[in-house]
What does this fold into?
Amino acid sequence: MNALNNALEWFVRMAFLNMLWLIFSALGLVVIGFFPALVATFTIVRKWLVGEVDIPVFKTFWQTYKKEFIRSNILGYVLTIFGVILYVDILIFNASSNTLINLLSIPLVIVTMVYLLTLFYIFPTFVHYEMKLVQVIKNAFLVMILNPFPTIIMLLGTIGIIFVSLTFQALVPVLSVSLLSLTLMMPSIRAFDKITEKQAKFLIK
It folds into this structure.
């Protein structure tokens, strides 16, 4: 019964958090609301995972949304622009029949994979540490490189969530982003703890 109660309690928490993400994303017309709401979602999930389960969720979400509104949008759109550039480059390379150009596409694919895997750690790093945005990106990359096992867990978890979301689309408004935040935040915290145990010698100051 305790396990069932705990599962139901987490389901309600995650559903409420996902609803907040939807509402606050819409509050910023998605364009400027998506990333602040995402950061607020990761912040709440992180607090829950480190034992702060009794925090006022709505108040904490709103305060984080306001506090990180500008920084989260800057970070989010820098990453988005870079991702779009990579995507367009891949399309251009794939459309070419030139052998040399096709060979050059191999490093581009590697860079794209590194970019996508680094994304897993971007927002966990953003909410876990007090850092400048450039440091967030650099440290997210370093943590990804130094922690292949958590990264694999994140990748498999993300693929699973995408599959379930596409199969059962009614769940998207209920659990999608909050569950993704949990899937990424749990391995991230373990990776961060490992770094802390090593006196954070790999972090860029």
